[in-house]
Amino acid sequence: MLIPKKGKPWLLTDFRFALQAEEEAQGFTVELYKKGLYALLKKLLPTLNVRRLGFESHYFLHSSVGKLEEMAENIKVELVPLLGLVERMRVLKTEEEIKLIKKSVLLNEQIFQSVHKTLTPGMTEIDIALALEQTMRKMGAEEPSFETIVAFGTNAAKPHAVPTNRVLKNGEIVLIDMGLVLGGYCSDMTRTFVVGKPKKKFFQRLRVVRKAQLAGTKAIRAGAICRDVDQAARKVITDAGYGDFFGHSLGHGVGLAVHEAPGLGSRNRKKLRAGMIVTIEPGIYLPEWGGIRLENMAVVREDGCEVLNEDTTGLDL
Amino acid sequence: MLIPKKGKPWLLTDFRFALQAEEEAQGFTVELYKKGLYALLKKLLPTLNVRRLGFESHYFLHSSVGKLEEMAENIKVELVPLLGLVERMRVLKTEEEIKLIKKSVLLNEQIFQSVHKTLTPGMTEIDIALALEQTMRKMGAEEPSFETIVAFGTNAAKPHAVPTNRVLKNGEIVLIDMGLVLGGYCSDMTRTFVVGKPKKKFFQRLRVVRKAQLAGTKAIRAGAICRDVDQAARKVITDAGYGDFFGHSLGHGVGLAVHEAPGLGSRNRKKLRAGMIVTIEPGIYLPEWGGIRLENMAVVREDGCEVLNEDTTGLDL
Hints:
Chains A, B: Keywords: Aminopeptidase, Hydrolase, Metal-binding, Metalloprotease, Protease. 2 copies of one chain form a homodimer. By secondary structure, chain A is of the alpha+beta class. Helix content of chain A is 34%, strand content 23%. The longest helix of chain A is centred in the N-terminal third of the chain and has 22 residues, at 95-116.
């Protein structure tokens, strides 16, 4: 995508995407390259009178920038690496965007609930992940916003578990982390529960995670420092003796991408602002035992936050 | 992944992938970073006595190389950008690898055939794509090697069509481009056919594409120049008057990745070598009418090539 200061933006692509580009990129001048992107830019930039060209440093590969530099030098264009330009424009959501994200969250929950009630021992992690993704598409989602995680028992100790053919046993932990794209906007939710009769330890630990989530949620408001929000939740888990088993950050922004700014982690000293949307997803992961994670999404408001989730599976303690 | 000249290779990752890394990366020393990759490298490189550090220029983002440079300067390590180092090691397949790829191809065909015979008017592109991907996982594939393409009628005029809710009508073109990963190795196949009674034009054009595929296949042997193979197939399509409607290259390498070297395109002057595996996938795309693509995979041999596919749907003219 090439956006000159004046005039229509350009979409540069190749033959394979010609029809799709015409259909989807309304308002753009679509130009196809036959001899590669850099050859086309070399022709196009002088006609557009471009003297300085910014590019997204965190999307361009190092080797591609090499080619970009060669081309730019050739036609005496100054190259300017940019970091987070578009991300900064996206970090605050408008009320319209918040509505779209809420819709995405609610559809995601509806799908979770419809599959959740069919779960029985004997199913595999892959069976359930496929059922969830198939239901997403049937119920109108554009696609999953990331590869659906379904993890049983000790597999749930991997925060980014990949579904396997492991068969669900009665009384085992089930961790489901799922999201979808609707109207271009992402959702992301995690629930952890037991099919059958859970052991006492499960409730004990679930309660710790839920308390941590509530503490994190309570700490969110415009002006709060990201790492302080992480710390508010982390403290509950540390105080319960599980500090070493919650190794990831508390949450991340969600919008057009399922992971975007801001990060709710222990190294982020930036302040939250009203209109940001973040996940709140503390967890405890014990290799020999399993894992528990609970994840909701919330909008940052001036005086607090508004949780977008309505599903209460595992939250109602 | 960090590979010192001597001693065990290292896998550097974070908490979220700790268990998976231990399970999957046998023979590696797994080290987790808490304060980011660059902070860990800064500590680790001096203890390993690294003075020159190569990195994959076509996998590292421009912004990440910035951080890598800062770190390297700090500990006086020389940075060396590398291009295609691993790819060059992968381009020639061993006989063992060829067997694994053949297995992947045959499983892919089996899945295609089992879904192909269930196709009826009224199904949507998404229905069929989901059925294919679900069957892949049920029949033991690790995952699809790319997002399955199912395109009806005019949608088939997009070489990289995305499945939609379009409903299949009797007599309409169906283009299916699908692949899977089995034992780590990819397959990739395209078939185009009609459910119901095809129009005459369809067979006419299908025959052109198949003839182009045969011409390309015949041109493949060790020592043949990649662009000449592309040209051999392209000439058939151009001679039939469809030269402007075959805008992509004839094929690409396949192995651990579904797209790898060598590229069979009009700008590649390199020679094929025995043991390479390539796709041969000519196509004709007419926006108002639809598209046809046929894709097989073949191993380059000293005196010709060995087509890995056995399925004959649309090839038996």
